[in-house]
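pinging the channel bc i need a second pair of eyes. not urgent but kinda urgent?? the chain im working w is below, pasted from the shared doc
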Amino acid sequence: MIEKNKHKPAVFVDVDLTLINCESFRIFILKKYLEAGLLKKSKLAWFYLLRRIGKISISRFKKQCFFILKGMKRSELEMLGARFSKNVLLKYVRPGAYITLKKHKSNGLPIYLVSASPQFYVKSLSNQLGLFGSFATEFKYNKEGKFTGDFDGSECIAEEKLLRLKYFCERMGIDLNSSVFYTDSYKDMPLLISVGVPIAVCPDKQLKKICKQKGWAIEYW
């Protein structure tokens, strides 16, 4: 449940390669395609080749990979996401992440996960960690509540991630300008420059360079 925190800062944490030391999307997709048999595995290899040679964008690549879930009910995906986050993702949470989350909880700050990965398992991960909520890429469902194979709106990344958080903070009375954001990727620059406390966690080369230029903190969890 999301509670109002008027005029207070919050803590926002990226998931892949920040909170956890892996890319959840790749692990989930590989697992599903391996379970699906040779034909599906061949299709995944084809999608991967198209991505490698630049024929499709990363967003299109993800949509094509997640097409294997088309037709599943929302409730089925949520149960699948809960199992995946509990049985797989929790094992990849960085030790330092637990320490940081505990520190912010003791200070009374609400913590939210923010990710380009699918909400159907990011939400479960947030719940299992005892956090306040999550912002992630949403799937589109038809009138029968079944996944259409497409995203609902834009992928939750870069500017889109910032727009969602701005709207949420304005509605909930959270002060984004004094909030904390943890991420590993330079792709999150729109949000990094919008919060009061930007912190890089195990940053990629581009973000590490920017942190040195701007004097931003770097942590290794």
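so The radius of gyration is 18 Å. and The chain has one domain: 11-219. — does that match what u expected or am i reading it wrong
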